[in-house]
Design goal:
By secondary structure, the chain is α/β, with parallel strands linked by helices. It has 2 domains: about 200 residues, Rossmann fold, CATH 3.40.50.720; about 100 residues, UDP-galactose 4-epimerase, domain 1 (Alpha-Beta Complex), CATH 3.90.25.10. Pfam families: GDP_Man_Dehyd (PF16363).
Length: about 325
């Protein structure tokens, strides 16, 4: 693929910064758009500032976004507000995730951007009705986040069908790895479990722990997203990107305990989270056949890499947990 000018929304976030890193390694010029609510400048500090430019802009600032779209070849749209955020701020969540996507599609089309990659979420499926889940699985989101991401998908596909505008939808399953979120209402289970166990605090399981997820190492997720913007034949398609296996959350806690060398790390159970999906298990056959996508990092290897990253971060687990929220859909203080 020839070198291109690429715009990545949410590019200072967890998955976004890994995507930007991979794009930069291929020599592309990248404009990162991130309002730094969840993203961090430090996530891009390792990159050449002459190749990667950060614009600290909210995607809802349409005049600014119109200027930034000029001369762009590909948009990778990852900017969003998360699942737990949608439980305490549904209208704002919808404004960014759904309306924001529609507005960006129109700006990209009018700016002659050559293609638009929309990064959705496995949350659009809700709880699995059959497994593994391919792209034809029914969509029945359980939260405003899932509903907003599905609306964004529908707008993205509509631009392909109505205008012939080259778009593709990617549905990543649960990602983990370095730079993942443990803090605030963005905090996810793997970094929260690992940091709490490292700090000698109990890992908190909401519900009975029998719910499952398909965890994919972030470098694999980002590679799948990157490929979706490079392959002409997938325009108009919707593609899963996942590991292709499932693990119960209670088993995950045990695996993380062993990863950090604390076989008897404490676990406590709390009430179920509202809108919690009970089962996810990806079928990424289409991405494998059309993109050549294949996960390269196992759950065990990815957890070991994350553990090493935390140990070399320069911050203690206790320091990092200072901004954790346990019941983070209510922004309750950590305990």
């Amino acid at each position: 693929m020839p070198l291109t000018n690429i715009l990545v929304t949410g590019g200072a976030g967890f998955i976004g910064s890994e995507l930007v890193t991979q794009l930069a390694s291929n020599g592309h010029r990248i404009t990162v758009v991130d309002n730094l609510v969840n993203g961090k400048r430090s996530n891009l500090a390792h990159l050449n500032s002459e190749q990667v430019e950060l614009a600290a802009v909210d995607i809802r600032d349409l005049p600014a976004m119109a200027r930034l779209m000029s001369g762009i070849d590909i948009v990778y749209h990852l900017a969003c507000l998360g699942v737990r955020h949608s439980l305490h701020a549904p209208a704002e969540n919808h404004s960014v995730n759904a309306t924001g996507t529609l507005d960006l599609l129109e700006l990209a089309r009018k700016s002659d951007v050559k293609r638009f990659v929309y990064v959705s979420s496995s949350e659009v499926y809700g709880t699995a009705r059959r497994t593994p889940m391919n792209e034809e699985h029914p969509t029945y989101p359980l939260t405003v986040y899932g509903g907003g991401k599905l609306a964004g998908e529908c707008y993205t596909r509509a631009y392909w069908e109505s205008y012939g505008y080259p778009t593709v939808v990617v549905r990543p399953f649960n990602s983990f790895g370095p730079r993942s979120h443990h803090e605030g209402d963005s905090g996810e289970v793997i970094p929260k479990f690992m940091l709490r166990a490292m700090a000698g605090k109990p890992m908190v399981i909401f519900g009975d722990g029998k719910q499952t997820r398909d965890f994919t190492y972030v470098a694999d997720t980002a590679r799948g997203i990157m490929l979706a913007g490079e392959v002409d034949s997938v325009m108009g398609r919707t593609l899963n990107v996942g590991q292709g296996s499932e693990v119960r959350i209670r088993d995950l806690a045990t695996i993380i305990s062993k990863t950090i060398g604390k076989d008897n790390a404490a676990i406590v159970y709390d009430d179920s989270r509202p809108g919690d999906v009970l089962r996810l298990y990806a079928d990424s056959t289409a991405a494998r056949e059309l993109l050549g996508f294949k996960p390269e990092v196992s759950l065990a290897d990815g957890l070991a890499r994350l553990y090493d990253w935390y140990r070399n971060s320069g911050h203690s687990p206790a320091q990092l947990l200072a901004d954790e929220r346990v019941r983070n859909w209510t922004l309750e203080k950590a305990s």
